[in-house]
């Protein structure tokens, strides 16, 4: 009897106590998870910023060698004095030696189109400096029925090396008109068509299409002019924050000569990109679509788009990297997107 009295009954958790413990753990996880996610996004955002700094160093090393920034793209065809008749290159390809990618630069054949199958050995290489870690990692690629500007389809098998950054090529009149801003002087306007087309007028940004840019040509100031911006997630199209099953016709990879960006603006639903037509030499310019005043994180089809909350990174012509708020005013954004329109911005 005494031994039985000395024995104590072992007691476990009751069901209610177990449920309370589980609830406490769930609350702690719910409290900690957002903090962990924010820390991870902060790290990805820092890496994205560092990518643009690296690209900025490559562009400035190019400028130090050649005394000009590279063209956003070179697209020549019908050349009788080179094999194949082409000379195609984007600023990214021209900067490869300054990104410690001299062997890749040597493997790229500039006398073929960028998408020629003979260039796939180079153009399918993934380079970390061109990829934002916040961007979608699983990207739908265009079907074989979609062709680039010279008629080549997206390659089957290994995809092109992705690129989440584009050159800031120009601002088009639709953005000024959609936001009620004065259109800059037509004396400094560029037309990208030959012969000139009324719908192809634009005002040059930090990297010009088809021509190199000396620093002296950036008369609005290098700290007031964008050179590269985020345009992430291509070739898969993202509208607002929704990744769709559609694909772009350009921006297929870092070697794509059409991977640059001109500021058009978009509608609030991201479905319509602004278009306008101009008469020269004195104007006027008029919208040919509905007003499309929004410029950032609306869609990534050759418009400024980042997978960061609240804005996007940009590389300025002085080599600095800024994080622009998606609430930046249209007048400020258009001012820092042009290089010589005499529209100097205030603090931004």
Question: Topology, pairings included?
Answer:
Blueprint: H1 2-6, H2 15-66, E1 73-76, E2 87-90, H3 91-94, H4 102-107, H5 120-123, E3 165-171, H6 173-178, E4 190-191, E5 201-204, E6 226-230, E7 236-239, E8 242-247, E9 261-263, E10 276-278, E11 285-287, E12 311-316, E13 321-325, H7 330-337
Parallel strand pairs: 3-9
Antiparallel strand pairs: 1-2, 3-5, 3-6, 4-5, 6-12, 7-8, 10-11, 12-13
Comma- or semicolon-separated keywords:
single chain, 348 residues, alpha+beta, two-stranded antiparallel sheet, 7 helices, globular
Architecture overview:
- With 348 residues, the protein is of the alpha+beta class.
- The protein has a domain at 128-148 and 162-337.
- It has helices at 2-6, 15-66, 91-94, 102-107, 120-123, 173-178, 330-337; strands spanning 73-76, 87-90, 165-171, 190-191, 201-204, 226-230, 236-239, 242-247, 261-263, 276-278, 285-287, 311-316, 321-325.
- The strands form four sheets. Strands 3, 4, 5, 6, 9, 12 and 13 form a seven-stranded mixed sheet that branches.
- The longest helix has 52 residues, at 15-66.
- The radius of gyration is 25 Å and the shape is globular.
């Amino acid at each position: 009897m005494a031994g039985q009295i000395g024995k104590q009954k072992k007691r476990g958790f009751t069901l209610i106590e177990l449920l309370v413990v589980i609830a406490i753990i769930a609350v702690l996880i719910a409290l900690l998870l957002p903090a962990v996610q924010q820390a991870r996004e902060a790290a990805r955002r820092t890496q994205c910023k560092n990518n643009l700094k690296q690209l900025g160093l490559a562009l400035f090393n190019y400028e130090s060698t050649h005394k000009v920034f590279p063209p956003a793209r070179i697209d020549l065809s019908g050349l009788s004095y080179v094999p194949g008749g082409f000379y195609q290159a984007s600023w990214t390809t021209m900067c490869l030696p300054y990104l410690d990618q001299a062997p890749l630069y040597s493997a790229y054949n500039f006398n073929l189109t960028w998408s020629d199958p003979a260039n796939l050995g180079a153009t399918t290489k993934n380079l970390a400096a061109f990829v934002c870690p916040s961007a979608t990692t699983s990207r739908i690629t265009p079907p074989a029925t979609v062709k680039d500007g010279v008629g080549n389809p997206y390659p089957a098998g290994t995809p092109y090396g992705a690129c989440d950054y584009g050159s800031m090529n120009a601002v088009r009149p639709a953005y000024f008109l959609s936001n009620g801003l004065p259109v800059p002087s037509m004396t400094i306007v560029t037309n990208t068509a030959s012969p000139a087309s009324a719908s192809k007028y634009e005002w040059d940004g930090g990297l010009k299409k088809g021509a190199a840019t000396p620093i002296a040509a950036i008369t609005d100031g290098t700290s007031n002019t964008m050179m590269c911006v985020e345009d992430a997630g291509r070739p898969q199209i993202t509208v607002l924050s929704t990744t769709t099953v559609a694909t772009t016709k350009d921006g297929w990879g870092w070697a794509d000569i059409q991977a640059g960006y001109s500021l058009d603006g978009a509608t609030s639903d991201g479905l319509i990109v602004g278009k306008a037509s101009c008469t020269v030499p004195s104007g006027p310019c008029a919208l040919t679509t509905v007003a499309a005043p929004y410029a950032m994180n609306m869609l990534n089809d050759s418009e400024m788009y980042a997978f960061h909350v609240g804005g996007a990174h940009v590389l300025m012509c002085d080599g600095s990297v800024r994080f622009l708020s998606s609430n930046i005013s249209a007048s400020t954004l258009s001012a820092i997107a042009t290089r010589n329109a005499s529209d100097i911005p205030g603090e931004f």
